[in-house]
Design a protein that fits this description.
The chain is built from 3 helices and no strands. By secondary structure, the chain is mostly helical.
């Protein structure tokens, strides 16, 4: 079951190897989350420019849209900031 965690191939899985794999999986999940947030913002913006949504509805929901953009941008910004900080920390 743990053979995929055996990075150095010595036949035994150490705590360090498990932690290294866990950190890689965590980093990959954070990267996917940031990319998803960025793609969702782009698609959402493109959808708002389609003529299927009336201008009145867009104006009525503009405060909610602003919160949506702030939330998604904060996910992307936090990922980029933490990535830069972690690369300098090493």
């Amino acid at each position: 079951m743990y053979q995929s965690f055996d990075v150095d191939g010595d036949g035994s899985v150490t705590v360090e190897e498990i932690q290294a794999i866990s950190n890689v999986e965590k980093t990959d999940s954070q990267r996917r989350m940031a990319w998803t947030a960025m793609i969702v913002m782009i698609v959402f913006t493109a959808l708002l420019f389609l003529p299927i949504f009336p201008d009145g509805r867009i104006k009525a929901l503009s405060d909610l849209f602003g919160l949506f953009y702030v939330g998604m941008a904060s996910v992307v910004g936090a990922y980029m900031g933490m990535s830069a900080w972690m690369s300098k920390k090493k």
